[in-house]
Amino acid sequence: MVSTYCLTPKAHLKIPTIVVFLLKKLSPFHFHHCKFYSHHSLPFPTTSSLHVKAIKDGSFQNLDVANHLLNVYVKSKNLNHACKLFDEMPRRDVRTWTILVSTFARVGSNGAALELFKNMQNEGIKPNQFTLSSVLKCCSSLSELKIGKGVHGWILRNGVVFDVILENALFYFYVKCEDFGSAKWLFESMEEKNSVTWNIMIGAYLDTGNVDKAVDLFRRQGLKGVSIWNTIINGLMRNGFERIALKLLYEMVKDGTLFNEVTFSIALVLVSLLKDLELGKQIHGRVLLSGIHVDGFLRNSLIDMYCKCGEMKMALKVFEKMDTYFGRNENSIEEVISWSSIISGLVLNGEFEDAFKTFTSMVRKDIDIDAFSITSIVSACASFGVLELGRQVHGLVQKMGHKLDAHLGSSLIDMYAKCGNLDDAKRIFKQTNYMNVVLWTSMVYSYALHGRGREAIQLFEFSMSHGLLPNEVTFIGVLTACSHAGLVEEGCRYFRLMKEVYGIKPGVEHFTRMVDLYGRAGQFKEIKKFIDENGIHHLRAVWRSFLSSCRLHRDIEMAEWVSENLLRCKTLDAGPYVLLSNIYAIKERWEEVATVRRLMQSRGVKKQPCQSWIQIRNQVHAFIMDDRSHPQKNEICAYLYKLIGRLRKIGYSSDGKLVMQDVEKKQGEGEMLLGFHSEKLATAYGIISTASQTPIRIMKNLRICDDCHNFMRYTSQLLDKEIIVRDIHRFHHFKHGCCSCGDYW
After folding, report:
1. What is the pLDDT of the chain when averaged over all its residues?
2. Where is the DYW domain (predicted)?
3. Which of 253, 274, 439, 574 could form a disulfide with 607 if both were Cys (CB 3.0 to 4.6 A apart)?
4. Which residues, 6+ apart, have CB-to-CB distance to 156 below 8 Å?
5. According to the model, what pLDDT value does residue 542 have?
6. CA 359 to CA 553: how far, in whole Å?
7. Residue 13 — pLDDT band, cuts 50, 70, 90?
8. Are 334 and 295 in contact (CB under 8 A)?
9. Which of 165, 116, 161 shows the shortest CA–CA distance to 138?
10. pLDDT digit string, tens, across residues 633-680
């Protein structure tokens, strides 16, 4: 009856009540009919009752019965009781040892498995092929080349007959330990090779970057199984050959090979890299049509794909329906990754407010918060410039006991720096005390962002003198520091150092920083020479930086020449058009201003609205120019009028040319528009909402204009109040009528 019942679907749900009754009737012989327990994860009471019954009726002395019980325990994931049973067994054979060795290997307790194998040999038990395969798997995971070679030698000395499984285990061991000479010799000497063998060899070539050899070996295969397709496509992606991987994915479909869960996950990662949303939707549809079980891993691949393709609505839809369609395994790795992925996606797509709400929900639902979720939300705080929320997240990190490692430390340094609190960034940097390039680069860039160029360079020089190798990001920070501090000679020297000493190939950002370095210093001839020497005429970012320098120095002739090079690219970025328009407006050449604006309209280019925001008592208040939507608008405007009047008495005057409009205006109307720039409204609100000695921190999505810069300087002088403004390029610390940029920005 028990043997028949085990064939019933979901029998394991009813087994406990039925078996307890039947065991009372069974003799030791009938006990062997209960082998089906090994295929189910039995509740512990049932497994324990089997154990008790075996001891009471004496069947435990039967080695087959004891081995079955041991198998039941390990399949039920009761490893502690399995080990206890193992120690109590009066006799043990090769199967007994193999059950436990293979179980430890399967769950990743590789050291324990090798120790058990050693004890097995000491007891004189000869391992079989399956035991040896498990031991070699442990050696592979631990990269224990010496031990694995010892096992290989033992096999040869004792005349163990190789089957294809054991040969594959040995082959995989040599590949994982990067002993490719032995791996190649073994591969060529194998008489029988199955799909696993070819898969290992292809994977080995891909791991060493030998893509051509891997593809050639793949092409030589006749009938290709799904695992080989998965290996080659995934390997091509890891080596940066996404387009070839996509081509092979289409070939796989044409070949008629059915996708499995791994194939779908690999395909979704490929879509994420290519940012091909339409293809991603097709694969999602194929998943649903295939009827394949969408487990947590595949669901997270779908969420990640939609996030990286910028389709947050679909990502949230998959995320929100995970309880309904996929079931919920509370605080499982899959669930934690789902939450982390959705928070990361919201941050990646600039939806910071929703990221904060989702993170708050994650905390309230008591979901385990991993380091990835924390770094994502800290990054959101940095991008949005919300210092108080960033401090709360930092407090949560400390409360949870997360170790302040290099990556979390660098995220916190970046957050404090971008929220305008350089002192706390330095404090975190000193606490970490690691010689790690990511950490030190964050601090170098933080100094650069705040215009502390000399300190950034000192830190960089100190790190090099202590043997820390800088990377390409480090040099972006160093060149930014030189640019913002006007250190032209130093910047040129570090650019050469990057190429000639460290062998780092300059990227777009390095070239842009160098153009900015020359441009801020007014060295336009050097910029032309630099562009010619490096062959970077095709880089829009370089020309835009050049144009920005023309505006800074009000060189209209050079600006027109630069604009010709930039606008022929037909960029949809409004920045270059606005820069040129502003340059014409400064010179009061209104016809040219109108021409540029008509060009923008004809090309469908839209200017990004200027916005400033300030955080007061855990609430973010955003403003745009001439904003009248704030609940305290009357109080803000009244104070701003009064403040501007007081500032005029100590020397402040509005620059009417910065209105940038060729219209008939009544006297004072231009100044009125300038008076309602977004950062001035945010400043006024900050002043009336904070104590007199409390610094004001304002974030702005575009470059601060000359007039607002003067306004901040005079306001800090009049009120003896520190004002910190972060624009798109850097921080400005206004104190006692001076700015940290030295009016050089």
Report:
1. 84
2. 651-745
3. 574
4. none
5. 92
6. 45
7. very low
8. yes
9. 116
10. 899 999 999 999 999 999 998 765 555 444 434 434 445 555 688 999
Strand partners for 725: 698, 732
Give the closest residue to 300 by CA, choosing from 328, 339, 331: 339
Instruction: Tokens for 623, please give them.
Output: 């403003």
Architecture of domain 511-607: Alpha Horseshoe (1.25)
Task: Map tokens 């200027």 to a residue.
Answer: 610
CB atoms within 10 A of CB 633: 14
Handedness of CA 109, 111, 116, 120 (dihedral sign): positive
**CB-CB contact of 731 with 451 (8 Å):** yes
Amino acid 571: pLDDT: 66
Instruction: Give the model confidence (pLDDT) of 73-85 as tens digits.
Output: 888 777 887 888 8
Kindly report the number of other CB atoms within 10 A of residue 458's CB atom. Answer: 13
**Residue 674: per-residue pLDDT:** 53
Q: The tokens 């231009």 sit on which residue?
A: 670
Does residue 123 come out as left (phi exceeding 0), alpha (psi in the -120 to 50 range) or beta? Answer: alpha
Q: Where do runs of H (alpha helix) occur along 89-128?
A: 94-106, 110-122
pLDDT attached to residue 328 = 53
Domains in the chain: boundaries: 511-607, 611-659+668-739
Q: Which amino acid is at 727?
A: D
Cα angle: 178, vertex 181, 186; to 5 degrees: 105
Per-residue pLDDT band for 12 (boundaries 50, 70, 90) equals very low
Q: What is the pLDDT of residue 30?
A: 34
Question: Which of 179, 186, 196, 235 lies closest to 212 in space, CA to CA?
Answer: 235
CA angle 733, 738, 741 (to 5 degrees): 55
pLDDT score at 736? 93
498 Cβ neighbours under 8 A, 6+ residues apart: 470, 472, 475, 504, 506, 510
Taking Cα atoms as reference points, which of 373, 348, 345 lies closest to residue 359? 373
Work out the pLDDT band at 8, boundaries 50, 70, 90: very low
Is the Cα torsion angle 147, 150, 154, 155 positive or negative in sign? positive
Q: Are 75 and 64 in contact (CB under 8 A)?
A: no
Alpha carbon 609 to chain centroid distance? 29
Instruction: Answer whether 0.85 is exceeded by the pTM.
Output: no
Report the run of H or E that residue 457 belongs to, with start and end: helix 453-465
Q: Helices H, strands E: what count in the chain?
A: 39, 6
Give, in order, the Cα–Cα distances in Å from 257 to each of 287, 289, 727: 14, 15, 53
The H or E element containing residue 674 is helix 669-675
Helices 226-238, 261-274: axis angle to 10 degrees equals 20
344: pLDDT confidence band, cut at 50, 70 and 90? very high
Helix (H, G, I), strand (E, B) or coil at 550: helix
Alpha helix segments (H runs only) across 501-623: 508-520, 524-534, 540-553, 556-567, 574-586, 590-602
